[in-house]
Design goal:
Layout: H1 12-20, E1 24-28, H2 34-48, E2 52-56, H3 62-66, E3 68-79, E4 83-93, H4 96-102, E5 110-114, H5 121-133, E6 135-136, E7 139-140, E8 146-151, H6 165-168, E9 171-175, H7 180-188, H8 209-222, H9 235-238, H10 245-259, H11 265-276, H12 278-289, H13 296-308, H14 322-338, H15 343-359, H16 361-371, H17 383-395
Parallel strand pairs: 1-8, 1-9, 2-5, 5-8
Antiparallel strand pairs: 3-4, 6-7
């Protein structure tokens, strides 16, 4: 996509999530806006230099998506005396569009699942393999494939079905907003509608996943009852965003992607709400805004000054709650790893972890695993932390044995 693209419009989060290739965004809009969604996807494909394939499940059989069973013969050695015998098993033959996704002109594809709420439950089940595993029959799609989706609300769709909960919980649900200004311009220009513009997700967008992940993990500790809330008595809600370990992980990915191309806090929470629902996102936002964490850069500076002067690093900066400490350690690791991983800064971070170890051993181990990713030959690990915490981390597979 062009370098001068910017994050604009009410559908900005949809485009950011689509580019992650890890969470499927679902554009939800009433009848009459479908052409706008489809044309926007096609325009996005042109900007991204990717072919777009639109898969309409309502006119497909499950086998058109999940693959056609067919028998396969092969030889297996069963006994060195009796020799070989024929054995037969069933495989799944992928449809042509999935094979074409591999055999195109070398450009990765965008798969666009349209009219999702017109799909019967059996078709939705077949689509789970496409969305979750990027697999069609026994054929894996190229890992760089992007997958997006669109639908009308179930009550407004032709022969509509609510989304099945396993499907709904894997999606980012986005209320599609029509660009009325662009529509006006097209109507005034003989139906030559302008191409929408999109922000490019930078290759470094995952850099802050650790800091965001620490926030979400800290919130789980603070509000454990919100970690899994399946809407047992409301099928309509079960077909939308609701909190589970899977959808909260998706929320972290989506929030990180949006942060990489926008400083608009409202868009970040929109990305979260689209995965886990408005109630969960509201609780998370209130908790996050009340964290009152120390500035990790200021704490690092004090630790480095103390070390340079030959003084022990003093406590007094740590928050009082476990969720606050975990969120602070995530921010600390992020600052060291992404904003100057020098020996001084890394060793100061480890000294701070040594202080955390005295009162919050489990949290120090989690923080140490994050910071250990920045270890370089010659860096020094504090003796107390190295002798007590590090062996636990190595045995748990949290760090490699090469970290001293």
């Amino acid at each position: 996509m062009p370098d001068d693209t910017v994050l604009t419009g009410d559908n900005a989060v949809f485009w950011a999530v689509l580019q992650t290739g890890q969470v499927t965004p679902l554009a939800i809009g009433g009848p009459g806006t479908a052409k706008t969604k489809t044309k926007s996807i096609e325009a996005f494909g042109r900007a991204a230099r990717r072919p777009v394939y639109t898969l309409i499940g309502s006119i497909r059989e499950p086998a058109d998506i999940g693959g056609y069973p067919y028998p396969v013969q092969h030889e297996v050695v069963t006994d060195p005396v009796s020799g070989k015998k024929q054995a037969v098993y069933m495989a799944l033959l992928p449809p042509k569009w999935a094979v074409d996704c591999h055999n195109g002109d070398g450009r990765p594809w965008i798969i666009f699942l349209d009219e999702l709420t017109c799909n019967a439950p059996a078709v939705q089940a077949a689509m789970l393999g496409v969305i979750t595993e990027k697999r069609v029959g026994d054929l894996p799609l190229p890992p760089e494939t992007w997958i997006g989706a669109a639908c009308n609300p179930a009550g407004q769709a032709a022969g509509g079905y609510e989304l099945e909960p396993p499907m709904a919980n894997r999606l980012y649900h986005h209320p599609w907003a029509m660009d009325t200004d662009a529509w006006d311009m097209g109507m005034l220009s003989g139906l030559r509608f302008p191409e929408p513009r999109f922000a490019v997700l930078p290759d470094t967008w995952k850099d802050h996943l650790g800091a965001n992940g620490a926030r979400f993990a800290a919130f789980r500790r603070a509000r454990p009852s919100l970690f899994y809330q399946y809407p047992e008595e409301d099928q309509a809600k079960a077909g939308g965003p609701w909190p589970s370990p899977r959808s909260i992980t998706s929320a972290c990915l989506c929030a990180t992607a949006v942060e990489a191309i926008s400083t608009d806090v409202a868009l970040r929470y929109q990305a979260i709400a689209g995965c886990v629902g408005d109630d969960w996102a509201h609780e998370f936002r209130q908790w996050e805004q009340a964290l009152d964490l120390p500035d990790p850069e200021a704490v690092l500076a004090k630790a480095m000054a103390a070390t340079a002067a030959g003084r022990p690093v003093e406590d007094g900066f740590l928050p009082g709650r476990a969720d606050q400490v975990l969120a602070f350690l995530g921010a600390l690791a992020d600052r060291v790893l992404r904003h100057g991983n020098t020996r001084q800064r890394w060793e100061a971070g480890m000294e701070i972890l040594g202080l955390v170890w005295k009162s919050w051993k489990e949290l120090a181990v989690i923080g140490g695993a994050a910071l250990a990713q920045g270890y370089r030959a010659g860096y020094r690990v504090p003796a107390d932390f190295s002798g007590q915490a590090l062996p636990l981390m190595v045995r748990a597979g949290m760090v490699q044995g090469g970290v001293p």
